[in-house]
């Protein structure tokens, strides 16, 4: 990769005031004794080598190569408070190359995060279950803003964190009261620049001109397979510039702390664009594997660790050496943090005097709470249409008043505004205020409607950053066709893993989506989300259940939800459907005493359950109960007594689940299924259903026959012989 | 977006010989009567408007805007044979903006693809189940190279198709015998340039210098939400150049057929890089919604359709008008196709004389077959190690001799060469032959080992293109950690939908992967792939079963497979395990007459089933059978008698499935599960298992208790009350 011209950062004054906030942001760049700097870097690198060597594993090379960057960040550039890691206006740091986590853990230790003791550092890769040093950074631990590891996710999260600052700043800041103006710093390696989700996020950050975002590229040109030029020869700097980024080169990233600091400050004070700092480093510097892929993901071996220490002028017979001098080097971090906090609290206090209402609202947002009585904003059952309505439309009826009134909502779509019905009265787009679009729809950073473009993965992963800025302050609501949440799956999973509340509005579910055909008709995707820990996949059957789905999603403060909706008109069942029922995952929709069968209806396919029940009664003289089953996870959380009541486990009547998805998983609740065994087909929705046997006239006789079989064979023999009743295949 | 300088294509000679092949490639660019050209374009556009209007739906705008591009392609630039759509050395055309499928269907009709009758064209969006005109192009229909629709997939497929040409050419072409030298043409819209998978694929195409790939960008600056500048303001041309692409601008893409043709020919004859032709067009040109998002995804309404015809000088009262003149305009396509074919067959015939052995091999490859007796290449059970072995290592023992000997194999990894064990003796990398890497590992286009970089999604989606070039000619084998096949899921799904054989080697499955922690430990991903139609997800328990997994995958000629492997050492069970057993999905591993329980063991967790069985016997006096269950899909395909024999449905002994994944779906085969209810934890593999209760000492007493409960309650009451026995949670 040919580095382009190094932008000059050498003429900056050594005392640089941030353009943005208070005097605590003055960066006091005293030139340290260069030898002391060197000893600190060597201490850090030997410590990393030791920490990996003790259990013969881990990722030493990247962390060692990035040592000087870490000093520049934690000693000079970043605003943070080790004694209060959740200081609201702190800078956010994201380690997108999460495998180098020792880099972060070690700096947290050196600057004085209390929980990050030496003993804890040494728990990395140990069998200790009380370790705060997992193999990748995890959000649960102080100083870690987001969980990273899957490559490309962190930089997308960082874009979300930077957006959150822009948005909250535009909403609450006033002249002389910059309440929210922190910087987001993100480390990436060569890998993150290859992942599609990162490329999507980079494109968006450039589009939005997030000048508060600084991405530091640990450019060591090595990945697991060897040198990066085996699979990537693009001109990274030119590519970033084409995407609307500043680029600053740093040639000697292994040692030149001062140049790195100047670059960081230049980037932090960028007026117009996000900045990439392209820092040349050497992976595993000081080791025999320096600059080689071997330094990436394995300990160096005792001999080389001794060698590293020897050539660093340290005692090769000792392990885990950190002199007092090194702790002293970082000593000011705590007091600087305290000062930053104190100034900010003073600022907030003045703000409260001058803008009491806004200050109240800001305080509520800081606590991560919604406006009180939000549930009352949701339309009553009586107010919903009674004629057939697509549930994507019902969703708009529920969500749009919420989004209008609850400022926590940031709603967006992956370029499906006309399809997903998420636009509320007076919505403003989140945009750079200087943008002038061809179609004339503009916005500013206070806007809460996000045009993600056709970037489903970044939509989910950036939303994790929005949600992680301060839990509950922003509630990201994403939207696209359900099928394309398969693109977003890695991001959605990371949201679930991090306990981040979000709502994903997934329209056009099932084969009912119609003419677009099998590429657009989800068959197996629900299986992923129903099995995934800590996520609610909810398929409401009508408007009332859609209201219930939103209530469940809004109450799940530590859990993302997917609300899965129809493209097509759905029958409304005001006599049967219940928002409260949705909270329990499944409930009796139509009761019949001494029923011959229980039919389980789900979401858009409820109509087939209800119609089959009616036909069984009118034509076959059979009594069918109907259970609505919008959410398996919520049902699983109910007490056994409730489950038995709803599903009548001990009855001799069989249960049949009707859903136009793969049946896998329904075996827990049903004895038989009417489902999909293949991909879908391009046909108008109604015809697609018919083509695959979703038609009461086809279902009822088969169910009747099944009931008869069960009577003959004995219900006990159903155990373990789940029946796929829908043999229609093409 | 600021277009950069238009590269001059106006001075090209009008007769241009391809640098590559035979005289049939001479493009006879007779300047047509400009008025005739105009009438053809108008006819085409009115026809599109009519086809959408008849059922009041579909995507007219893009197809209309691209009309001149279509003429340039099908009349002038592309090599194809309407009478033999599968002519081996044809150019491949991919419609990455698949929603504009009417564009392709209509040109297939006009140039004489026999099956694409006018009657068929009119079946678009109809309820006809015999339609060959689904809402997005589908590979099953002649002239369609790959199924597209989910955005970004098509361009990745096109990269794969172009790689296939490069690879086969480098393998079989000889001086004066360019057997395989076709061009791949790919249409994209504004959306594809936003999707991460496309950006990954673009980066790779530039890296590999695929000069036989031409991407034509239908730059209409409109997507569903409005003008593209609402979400994308990057300089596309500069970005592509930074990725190693040529860029050619065409300003008047709506009408200027000649300039488009010149651009296509320039691109086709590129010596060094892939080419993007950036063509400015107007979506829905001629309609009242021209240039507006409204033209994208809805019919124009009868009034505007009449208006379009009127302003096109056509009879507004008539529908579906195609004059003889227009058919005549494309008449030469068939004869040109016949000539191309004839020349190529002559070439092959000469080649056969001169290179008989290679010709035989080439013929076998064309038929999509492997070397005969491939099964004998797989090591025997006796040759495998008997000491504990990671199944990722077993996989190498099986796959590497196959890859060495069967040239169909193209094996690659998303930057995990040291972890996935897929390198065989003498492997050559697929690389541009001019590449000189820093680490000194180079290659050429004949290479069959692919460094995908950290681009899992593109790896899968490009592999679809490799597999689709000519079914069976290339067998793509991908590899990464199982967890990161969540990034690749949209591509893997498209492979399954298209019946493309591929093998995905997914190492580091389950929590046994250890220290990397929950970000790297898959819990729910298997649920997606077990439910997805037409894919085999196979988790072998030891080396012998790994051999079985490869045999199943290699026999599944129309189905992709995922072979799911351990990072850690696994016990080997030569007395129990069976490659033949794997072919049936599940089989009896350890039989016991009158057993008290059946334990289902799966993959890396088989050890817990076997150890629990032993402990139940030695400590609890209970008899446990063990069933190995590597593949649910294969088991589902077995006759009911076999299933009953293996799982003993009618026995009173319960069945317990032991797997460190979400249990969803095991309810079909078991009465209880020992599984995961949460995400994983960062601990060494063995400790992670212990932490979550995977330990025979913990499992056996619970299973014993469960057996006792079942005896008391009666096995019939297990129906519908699946038990999660593993309550360990943290």
UniProtKB/TrEMBL annotation, chains A, B:
Annotated GO MF terms: metal ion binding; transketolase activity
SMART domains: Transket_pyr (SM00861)
A single Gene Ontology CC term: cytosol
Binding-site positions, thiamine diphosphate: 99, 149-151, 220, 296, 484
Binding-site residues, Mg(2+): 190, 220, 222
Pfam short name (any one): Transket_pyr
Required cofactor(s): Mg(2+); thiamine diphosphate; Co(2+)
Keyword Transit peptide carried by entry: no
Site positions for Important for catalytic activity: 59, 296
Family label: Belongs to the transketolase family.
Protein's name according to its UniProt entry: transketolase
């Amino acid at each position: 990769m040919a580095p382009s011209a190094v932008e000059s950062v050498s003429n900056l004054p050594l005392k640089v005031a941030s353009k943005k906030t208070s005097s605590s942001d003055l960066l006091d760049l005293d030139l340290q004794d260069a030898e002391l700097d060197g000893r600190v870097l060597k201490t850090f690198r030997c410590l990393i080598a030791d920490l990996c060597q003790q259990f013969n594993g881990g990722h030493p090379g990247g962390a060692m190569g990035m040592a000087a960057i870490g000093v520049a960040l934690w000693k000079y550039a970043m605003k943070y408070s080790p004694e209060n890691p959740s200081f609201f206006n702190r800078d956010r740091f994201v380690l997108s190359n999460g495998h180098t986590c020792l880099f972060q853990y070690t700096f947290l230790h050196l600057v004085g995060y209390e929980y990050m003791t030496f003993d804890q550092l040494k728990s990395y890769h140990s069998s200790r279950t009380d370790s705060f040093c997992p193999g990748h950074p995890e959000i649960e631990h102080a100083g870690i803003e987001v969980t990273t590891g899957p490559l490309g996710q962190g930089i997308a999260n960082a874009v979300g964190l930077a957006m959150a600052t822009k948005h909250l700043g535009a909403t609450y800041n006033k002249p002389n009261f910059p309440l929210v103006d922190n910087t987001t710093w993100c480390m990436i390696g060569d890998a993150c620049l290859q992942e599609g989700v990162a490329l999507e996020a980079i494109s968006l950050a450039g589009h939005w001109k997030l000048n508060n975002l600084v991405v530091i590229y640990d450019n060591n040109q090595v990945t697991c397979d060897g040198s990066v030029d085996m699979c990537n020869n693009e001109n990274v700097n030119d590519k970033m510039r084409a995407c609307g980024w500043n680029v600053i080169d740093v040639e000697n990233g292994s040692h030149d702390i001062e140049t790195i600091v100047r670059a960081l400050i230049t980037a932090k004070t960028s007026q117009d664009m996000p900045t990439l700092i392209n820092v040349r480093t050497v992976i595993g510097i000081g080791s025999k594997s320096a600059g080689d892929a071997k330094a990436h993901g394995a300990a160096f071996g005792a001999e080389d660790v001794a060698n590293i220490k020897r050539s660093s002028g340290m005692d090769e017979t000792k392990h885990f050496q950190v002199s007092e001098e090194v702790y002293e080097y970082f000593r000011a971090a705590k007091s600087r943090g305290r000062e930053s906090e104190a100034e900010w609290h003073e600022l907030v206090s003045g703000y409260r005097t001058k803008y009491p209402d806004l200050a109240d609202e800001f305080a509520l947002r800081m606590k991560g709470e919604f406006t009180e009585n939000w549930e009352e904003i949701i339309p009553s059952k009586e107010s919903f249409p009674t004629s057939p309505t697509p549930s994507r439309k019902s969703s708009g009826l529920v969500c749009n008043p919420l989004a209008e009134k609850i400022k926590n909502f940031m709603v967006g779509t992956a370029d499906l505004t006309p399809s997903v019905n998420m636009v509320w009265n007076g919505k403003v787009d989140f945009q750079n205020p200087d943008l002038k679009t061809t179609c004339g729809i503009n916005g500013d950073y206070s806007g809460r409607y996000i045009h993600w473009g056709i970037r489903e993965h970044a939509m989910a992963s950036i939303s994790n950053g929005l949600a992680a800025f301060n839990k509950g302050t922003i509630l990201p609501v994403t939207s696209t066709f359900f099928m394309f949440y398969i693109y977003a799956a890695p991001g959605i999973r990371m949201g679930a893993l991090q306990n981040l509340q979000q709502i994903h509005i997934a329209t056009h579910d099932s084969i009912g989506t119609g003419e677009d055909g099998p590429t657009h008709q989800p068959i197996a995707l629900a299986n992923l989300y129903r099995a995934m820990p800590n996520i609610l996949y909810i398929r409401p059957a009508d408007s009332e259940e859609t209201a219930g789905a939103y209530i469940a999603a809004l109450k799940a403060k530590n859990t993302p939800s997917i609300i899965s909706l129809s493209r097509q008109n759905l029958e409304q069942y005001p006599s049967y459907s219940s928002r409260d029922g949705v909270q329990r995952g499944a409930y009796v929709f139509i009761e019949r005493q001494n029923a011959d069968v229980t039919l389980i209806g789900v979401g858009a396919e409820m109509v087939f359950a209800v119609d089959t029940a009616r036909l069984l009664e009118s034509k076959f003289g059979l009594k069918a109960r109907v259970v609505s089953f919008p959410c398996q996870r919520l049902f699983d959380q109910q007490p056994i007594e409730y489950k038995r009541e709803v599903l009548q486990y001990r009855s001799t009547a069989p249960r049949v689940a009707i859903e136009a998805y793969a049946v896998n998983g329904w075996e827990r609740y049903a004895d038989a299924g009417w489902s999909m065994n293949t991909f879908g087909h391009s046909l108008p929705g109604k015809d697609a259903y018919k083509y695959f046997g979703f038609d009461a006239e086809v279902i009822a006789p088969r169910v009747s026959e099944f009931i008869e079989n069960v009577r003959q064979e004995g219900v006990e023999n159903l155990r373990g012989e789940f029946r796929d009743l829908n043999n229609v295949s093409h």
